[in-house]
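Format notes (please read before filing issues)

Several people have asked whether sequences and structure tokens are stored in separate files. They are not. Every record keeps both together, in the order shown below: the sequence lines, then the token lines. Line labels are part of the format and must not be stripped during preprocessing.
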Amino acid sequence: MRHHHHQHQGCGPRGFQAISRGFGRHFGRGFAGEGFGERGGRRRMFDSGQLRLVLLKLISDQPRHGYDLIRAIEELTGGAYAPSPGVVYPTLTMLEDMGHIDEQKSDGARKAFAITAEGAAHLETNKAEVDAILARLAGLAAEREKFDGVTVRRAMLNLRMAIRGRLMQEGADKATMREVTAILDEAARKIEGV
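Then the structure lines:
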């Protein structure tokens, strides 16, 4: 019974808190430490010069609206980060004032921007820094994917420990086993339908 008690504690509050602390230490570096988001007093992902370069690079690929640029950055990070409109739109105005982008004529309400020759030259001059920033965004995407995978593994571990703990408790019988099995079968059906 002593062995059972130890195992059961592993998925109890103390065990879960230990797992949570481990995740916090690991992912705090990859996300919050890198300025994940722009709220809550965290550092921003980019300084203003870096954001200008990222937006210029994305606009050089194809003309884009401000909203398109926000979504493009979010996609580059695998959904881990999206700059706020309050940061993106003033930066676009700055790029336009610098002559690096031009507003395209459009019948729609949203303004699309295209890169100018001067903007393309500036981008080429700063190619090394642009590549480094894009690599950083790709690293965030990889970290986000790893985080999601670890979350699933943590849930599976909790499930295994909960089943083991319940079936080893006093009073667990065939009826209990049938009920646990039914719950697992139902969970499998729901997961298959996701």
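For reference, the curators noted about this record: Residues 1-43 have pLDDT under 50 and may be disordered. Residues 91 and 98 are 10 Å apart (CA to CA).
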